[in-house]
Amino acid sequence: MPEPLLKENTNLILVTESKRKAANGKLEPKTKSALGQYMTPANVASFMASLFPEPVSKKISLLDPGAGVGSLTSAFVDHFCKLYSNICIDLTAYEIDSVMQEYLRENLSLCKTSANLKKCKFSWKLINRDFVVEASRMIASIDSLWKEDVEKFSHCIMNPPYKKILSSSRHRLSLRTAGIETVNLYSAFVALSVLLMESKGYLVAIIPRSFCNGPYYRPFRELILKYTAIKRIHLFDSRSKAFKEDKVLQENIIIALEKNAEQGDVIISTSTDDTFSDIAISDYPFSSIVKESDSEFFIHIPTSPDDILELSENFRHSLSDVGINISTGPVVDFRMKDHLRQMPEKGAVPLLYPCHFKKDALVWPIENGKKPNAIMTNSDTKKWLYPNGFYTVVRRFSSKEEKRRIVASIVDPRLLDGAENIGLENHLNVFHKNKKPLSENLARGLVVYLNSTIVDEYFRRFSGHTQVNATDLKLMTYPSRHILSKLGEWAKLHAELTQEMIDNKMESFSK
């Protein structure tokens, strides 16, 4: 490599970026998907490196698990050697892909040359072993009788792979030896790295936002909150821009954690995309990020300093306070194929799917539709049916075209041919009272509340994906039963409710 390429501060980043693009072009799509490989663009890598605080020691022990071609390490070396003189960076990098390793070795050699030019030192070792298996073994050994001498790290920068962990997989078994329960490789990488950090060690990662809520990531959230302080979270307003080359649609965040540090205010920043040209930054008390009373440890990420739901006492009731239950629809259609009917017939009752709700209203039956409209009533199905009546339903999956994450509709029994019972399909969340109907006013009031902009903004603070789980809705706060009924009375006076009408009405109750 000609020396002039490394004389300017930015050249290390540019050279690494060119190698990243070259390596990305060589990866087989199937292999990339199987390993969850999405390499970090230069702008994102440089921004992540800038989030580390000034080092307290001249000696830095850096961990880069799943190092790829070394984009994050290159950005780290470039940033630290540019700002701090005479530092020594000792890197441990894990990478198992042979295509990546070829480029990674070249880039780590460039890092060493670049560091020397800036009067810093850089050394590295590349480990060609599975990080999850290896790190789990090391962590398990810390508490074992033979006590392996495990290296601890002062810094960690990562873009871990995104892939579900099967319950019977080698990874799941390895993680359990380290006392870690989680469902995705990205959360496994973060959890393991946290446990390998020394006290006051600093970790910066770009990961999906899906860990912020839901029951499956609860052990991971608990581990993070037990061992680290959340220092900063960065969000991208555009869901697809952080990894646009790989067409990753999952919403990603950049998070900075400090091991064994006192939890204080959390810095939340946002930018439209990975150019970081319009960053907005605010500080939030930790009590607005994780609620003290929340046993699920949901992580809320405010997008604006003004949060009506936090300010209003009228919206601080739990569903149990209001006397309402929520469940996923009990009818799982593929398990009841023999009992489904395309159109209503004698002995059958209405079966409602998300497609039966158009613009918050019920449309049933749908002729020539893709989904059945009815289910037979018999000894095999009766226990899965609800009495006909007023219910509020929320789709578990919102479509790409919809602006709101939460899309609520009402089940109006008058539109269901006087049926005694109804079936509610599993892709719906159902608000009910002990599996019985709600009053009309209460059901309509819930629809108004759930379809408001302030609820949508509130939900987006802790949910980074389009799925809406019953647990998420259960743990939200609600207006009192009285206010919900008042909202329902108001809704009945209007044939159609616009978003502006809903939001204005909600604002009148939030003061």
TrEMBL record:
Keywords: DNA-binding, Methyltransferase, Restriction system, S-adenosyl-L-methionine, Transferase. The keyword Transmembrane helix does not apply. Pfam families: Eco57I. The keyword Nucleotide-binding does not apply. Gene3D superfamilies: Vaccinia Virus protein VP39 (3.40.50.150). Residues 114-243 form the Type II methyltransferase M.TaqI-like domain. InterPro entries: DNA_methylase_N6_adenine_CS (IPR002052), MethylTrfase_TaqI-like_dom (IPR011639), N4_N6_ade-DNA_methylase (IPR050953), SAM-dependent_MTases_sf (IPR029063). SUPFAM superfamilies: S-adenosyl-L-methionine-dependent methyltransferases. Transmembrane segments: none annotated. Its EC number is 2.1.1.72. GO terms for biological process: DNA restriction-modification system; methylation. It catalyses: a 2'-deoxyadenosine in DNA + S-adenosyl-L-methionine = an N(6)-methyl-2'-deoxyadenosine in DNA + S-adenosyl-L-homocysteine + H(+). GO terms for molecular function: DNA binding; site-specific DNA-methyltransferase (adenine-specific) activity. This is site-specific DNA-methyltransferase (adenine-specific). It comes from Maridesulfovibrio hydrothermalis AM13 = DSM 14728. The gene is hsdBM.
